[in-house]
Amino acid sequence: MAKSTEIAPHEDRSPFTDKKSEPGSADLKLILKNTVKLWEHLEKYTMAAYPKAIAKWNYPGEKYGWSFRISDKKRVLMYLLPRKGYFKAGFVFGEKAYNRIMESKISKHIKDELSSVKVYGEGRGIRIEVRNAKLTEDLKQLIDIKISS
Question: Does residue 3 carry a pLDDT above 70?
Fold first, then answer.
């Protein structure tokens, strides 16, 4: 089982920081609590929408800890970032996808947040906290837009 390191509440990183211990489903259940079902739902939804996708854990360093990526050969479709009791869904959208999001029925809150972030060469990055099922439909729309762009 992956070790979970205690982190200060102001730090925003994965609770899984041991490079030698890739998290498994038991670890996720322990850390994510009730939100593990939402994580699993989004992962399954993305893999069903894009069967060629590759889902795997990634360890960029102790500063960030373990995160989960679903990607195709060229880009990451979605990041799932574990936190204690919840997780974040991360996306990077290019201009075309951004415009589609702005024209969609996705919540104003997500559109406002996406509009306010700095634009980089690869696009606009956003991390959405998932603490309950309230944003599930918005997240599925974001996944669909990311896959089709």
Answer: no
